[in-house]
Fold this protein.
Amino acid sequence: MNDTHLPTRRDAVRSGAVALAGFPLLAPASQPTSRPKSVIFVFLTGGLSQLDSFDLKPDAPETVRGEFLSIPTRTSGLRICEHLPLLAQRSDKYTVIRSMATGSDGHEIACHMLLSGRLDTPAGFTMENIPNRTEWPSILAQVTHAKRSRGRNDLPVAAVLPEPSINEAGKVRPGQYSGRLGPRWEAWHLGMATKCPLGNGACPFCFRFDGSAFRHEPHTVFETPNLSVAKGSEARLQGRMELLKSLDQQPRSSQRLADAPGLDQPRLQALGLLGNPKARAAFLVEQTDEKVVSRYGRNKFGLSLLMASRLSEAGVGLVQVNLGKNSTWDTHNRNFINLKQNLFPYFDHGISALLDDLSESGRLDDTLVIVTGEFGRTPKINKDAGRDHWGAVMSLIVAGGGVRGGRIIGSSDRLGAQPATERCTPENLAATIYTALGIPAHSTWEDMDGRPYELYRADPIEGLM
């Protein structure tokens, strides 16, 4: 696909003729389903090591295979890291993809690729003052635009929590915001994680990669925003909610409301949030039943995933969960110690709880869950017992949304260095998300200068269904 001018599609978008029909995940566009699905996208910011998680190479040389052993799962022929025992017991719920590649070894460009769903870099792109209008729009912004005529304004189409992905220098990684699509289609970006002296983000807890002593014990996991309604304003809030409800019952009025250039859409959504008990409760995860909290883990990994589940249940179609700041999974130093002690126990606990929660509530079939970093790690272990950036291949897991669990898609070579079969890219992953959300394959968007672009850059990942 390319970015050439498409006048007929542009005219169709302007006339409102591009319909939003529901399609089954990975099914041809001629076979609509009754309703689209929702998506929880778990981003392991920094880059998960494929060789120490879901694609171990026990027969590789010692300089490659590392310290961890593999263990069997419920899936015949699938072995994963010994430090992921809970996920091993639940392998029937997810598919492992071992042949994804961004092709970039740099955090910035790889994040831009993964989070925008595009491998190319736009003309005039700059890394200065991110976020900026030279970036491709995020997948979340593109989904917000594509789902603009869904007829409701009370909740955002897409949300990011608990923090944006920011590096140690305090700079935002590209690909997370609306970029060339324009601020009108920005997703919700929450900033809720309790601040850590070592940098913001959703680490399970603050730790130093070099193992030096550090102690930081905040009283709360999140700095929860004030979501209460001022005393005496309940009647006014109800009146405004009734007004929004009446507008929602009139499709054309609702469309004009959504498209009105001067309207403060975030304020409307905040109003809707206050009137939606499920959405309000989603932010109060620390106050929920202790059994639920313990199931996920009282830490930023676990409770971010619980919040994502509740926002999804409340009606937010696409929720991105950033598990970590840039360095969290960037295991250049002490890779094995930090994965074993500081990361995998909380990751294994939280993701397993999310899958169980969705399954037991009957929501797994309608909720696509994706867990991935922006690239993998080097096959060769470095002098600091770590692994460096590796864009050639990485592993991810995909569950729910009609995906058949207990399977492996693709493979890497004997060193875990290159895709050996069924190579796929972030463009395939983005197409998978769009399809799950019921966005037609012919959809387009226009940048702020009126130039049209195709939403789908590739086909959805083959073989998930």
